[in-house]
Amino acid sequence: MNLLVVGASYRTAPVGTLERLAVAPADLPDFLGRLLALPYVGEAVVVSTCNRVEVYAAVSGFHGGLGDICSVLAAKAGCPPAALANHLYVHYDSAAVEHAFRVAAGLDSMVVGEAQILGQLRDAYHAASESDSAGRLLHELMQQALRVGKRAHTETGIDRAGQNVVTAALGLAAGHFADGLAGRPALVVGAGSMGALAVATLSRLGAGSLTVTNRGADRAARLAGAYGAHAVPIADLAAILSTVDIVVAATASTEAVLTRDLVAPAVAARRSAGRSTLVLLDLAVPRDIEPTVADLPGVEVIDIDSLAAGLPDGPAATETTAVAQIVAAEVEAFLSWLRGADVAPTVAALRTRADEVVAAELGRLAQRRPDLTDDQRADVAHTVHRVVQRLLHSPTVRVRQLAAEPGGDQYTALLRELFDLEVPRTGQVDRIPDIGYSGTGTGDGR
Fold first, then answer.
1. Would you call 50 a catalytic residue per the annotation?
2. What is d(CA 18, CA 250) in angstroms, rounded to the nearest whole number?
């Protein structure tokens, strides 16, 4: 099996495409099942966030695996694979490992260095584990990616500024008010992880009265209570819009929560009351705010597209360089482990072949020399086994060492050719929490 990553992100696709590709948590088991039902896909993990949708897969062939994954993504987006191709990126084998580690370290995030991606990766990995779609290869890749991400944040200052998508979006929102966000009444729609982060950030920035609404009223009440905010029923959303200046929408809804029909009356009421601009932050994919809302007078909408275009510079070059160095070292360590792990089935097959030859020859000896006693037969068997094992020891140790080096797969192939070994392909297996690779750092990440 080989590693393959196929995905789309804010770098390659507009938010309209990302929202068609987005996979809701409730839909993940079915989506993973569709991937595993295809002939070339043996394992799969799906990461779906506000600015990326990625499939990490163990495939039995590059072109076949790519075609399988693209067909599922195209069906999800409701378009032909050719129409989606320009928005996708593809990473294979070593490039796939590097991409996974860069994502975990925050180097590929819209807000470079944000730590939220670690939780999102962990959630994706757990969902795959629960669906039995992650096998030996992806279990190890995900575990080590999480550890590498934790190491990057622990050992460098890449997240020292505490930036994330919410803080970046609110930074853009502040530019629409002469005095910033201080004292401005705000509403957060959604009480999940992003909504909680929005409430915490607004509170820290000194926003005015905070209101939280959510389809699940109990969850909204708990979040509001933690920050001294007010919780209101989702049915009162239209009325609240006329009383706040900032709205952060971050739900898991598959349909728009803030429609033009809902927002337009509130905008009219605000205009009559002489209130300032209404700034709406849409941090959800699929979008929570209907696109035509942005056409209403007195409304500013900041979504993933406008956020990506308006972000300030990220962390200092020294910090990103330090993280890139960590990633590069960890990638090489993982690839070295992977090359060594790939030779194990071949070595096992060689030893099995040797055992079969010894057993056959001992059987022939028993037919030719029926006069041998049981003790004599045991002594002969023991001696022959020792000779064979001693002959195999040095070559098998050496081939493991060579296989761990760049280009080491040629030694494995040569061993199979020389001894005419048939080594079955490794497919999906039971979960293996730790199969020997420890990387170059000391973090855990699990």
1. yes
2. 15
